[in-house]
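Format notes (please read before filing issues)

Several people have asked whether sequences and C-alpha cells are stored in separate files. They are not. Every record keeps both together, in the order shown below: the sequence lines, then the C-alpha cell lines. Line labels are part of the format and must not be stripped during preprocessing.
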Amino acid sequence: MDLVVLSEVRWGYFRTRKQFLLSRFPERWRVFFAQPPAAGADDPWTPRHEGRVTYFTVPFLKPVTRNRLYNAAAATAPGRALIERTAWSHLSRRLRELGVEPRPVVMASNIYAAQALERLEHRAAFYDFNDHPFQFAGVPDWTHPYWPRAHAAVDWMFVVSEWYRRKLSTEVAAPLVPLGNGVEFDRFAAPSPPPDELAQWPRPWIGYVGLLSHFLDFELLERLRAERRGGTLILIGPGSPATDDAVRALAARGGVAVLGSRPYEQVPGVMQALDVGVIPFRAHDSFVQGINPNKVYQYLAAGCATVTTPLLDLEAAPPHLQFAAEPGHFVSAVHAALDAGRDPDACRALARPHDWGERATRMVTEIERRLSAVRSDSQAREDA
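Then the structure lines:
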C-alpha cells in the first residue's frame, strides 16, 4: 500500500512526530513524503530514501519566507494560484515517476497543499492535526481560507490532544481520532552521559529543553530563576528571533545557563542529568492549551520529574508529574519535586505506555480498519 504525505515540515527538520510515526510503518506500506522547500537548506529536489520512506521537495505555497518577491506574489490571489498550479504539476509528475499507485492513501498536515489534496485521486485521505496551522508568528490573513479547504477534503482526522479534539468537534465535520504524541522510550531510558559544561553550574538543575519559542512565559521563568534554591535554571535548545532579547535579559540577571542547541542524540543525557524538567509555557494561551508536547514523555522516560502547564491527555502523578497554570503554583510544584528526591523508575513507568511504536501501531491499525470498511461498502454496492 502507498501513502502520500503532504507535509508542512521537512523530513530532516529535527525529529518530528511524522518521522517517529512514519518510520515505524510496517513493510507492507511505502511512504512518499512531499515536503515544502526551505531557503538555504539542502532541498531534496531529487527524491531520497530513508528506510521505506521516499522524501522529496515540492514547491508548495508557503505563508512566510525570506524572499520579499515571493511574499509579495503570495499575498495576491493570482500569485497564489500560480504557485499552487506549479506545485500540483510538480507533485503529480513526481508521483508518476516514482511509480506510486494511481489511488494511494493520502495523509495531509499542510493546509497550503489544499489544492493538491483536493485534486489527488485517493482511496482515503486523512489529516494529522499536531500543531494548529495559525499558532506560528507572522501568519498573514490570506492563509485562513486554506484550513477549511483542507479539513473538508479528508475522510477523518488524527488529533494530537484531547483539548484540540474537543475544540475541533465544533469546527469540522470529519470524524476525529485521538492520537497523542510519544517518546522513543528505550533511547531516553538508556543511561547517557550529560554534557560536560553542566558540571560548572551549581545544583539543583531546573531545566527546559526545547525551542526557545514565543510560547515561553518569561514571568514564570523569572520566578524560577529567583527561587531556584541556589541552583541553576538551565535552558537548552535553539533560539528564536521572537525571544532572543528576552532570553538575554533573563540570563543577565544571573543563575541562568543558556547552553544552546544539542543534537537529538545528546538530549537523553541532558534530561537524565536534570533534577526537575520544566515546560514553562504561557498556560492561558489557547494554542498552548492544545499542544501535547513530546518533551513531557521524554523527560519522564529519562527518569526526570516533570512540571508542566496542564494537559488533558495525562493524569497528574505528584511529585513525578505535576501541572501548574500560575507562576506561584509552578514554583511550588518544582520545590515539591526537589524535596521528594529522584525516582527515575516511577517517572519511566508514566512514560512507557507512550512509546512511538505503540502510537504508530495505533495509527496504522486505524487507517487499515477504515480502508477495510471502504472496501466492504464498495463490495456491498456492487453485489446490490
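For reference, the curators noted about this record: Residues 278 and 307 are 5 Å apart (CA to CA). The radius of gyration is 22 Å.
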